[in-house]
Amino acid sequence: MRRQDGFTLLEVLVALIITGIGLAVVFQSFSQSLGLRAKAEAVDEAVQAAQRLLDDEAFIAETLARGGGSGPIPEADAWRYRAIVEPMRWAPRPDQEPLFLEGMAVLTLCVEKAVPGAKAPRCVTGWYRAVP
Q: Which residues contact 99 (CB under 8 A, 6 or more apart)?
């Protein structure tokens, strides 16, 4: 009997199946990483848009004085904000009635891209001394 060099058809098919499964896993991971990158870029863009507003002391003072507001974000194309101002409340314990802290306000700032199909707004909350 002669010795045959090479692979059988079955060995080649098994190797191709294993290679195909490996490539499918790699491509799936690559696709997920691209999606996560896009989400991270959107969050970063929202953070930068909100930071522009939060760095502007005149904006904060005006928003606190008006009790909130909404509108486009200057120098941030296609971004809008919504600000909600509420009196600051504090409860020493969960079972106690909250106390209103005189002269303090809670500012909730939400930013969202003003384009069709945009994701939910990103919001941040901060405490500020209320404008008299």
A: 89, 90, 91, 92
Residue spans of the domains in the chain: they are: 9-129
- Please say whether the beta carbons of 84 and 107 come within 8 A: yes
pLDDT means over runs of 10, the chain (132 residues)? 79 95 94 88 84 88 91 84 91 85 90 80 86 62
User: CA separation (Å) from 104 to 96, 128, 132?
Assistant: 20, 6, 10
Give 81's contacts (C-beta < 8 A, 6+ positions apart).
49, 50, 53, 70, 71, 72, 73, 109, 110, 111
CA distance 98 to 88: 9
- Distance between CA atoms of residues 24 and 114, nearest Å: 37
Reported as a single tens digit per residue, the pLDDT across 35-72 is: 889 888 888 888 888 888 888 889 999 999 999 999 98
Distance in angstroms (rounded) separating the CA atoms of residues 35 and 108: 28
Q: Measure the CA angle with vertex 45, ends 28 and 70; round to 5°.
A: 130
In degrees and rounded to multiples of 5, residue 5 shows phi and psi of -90, 155
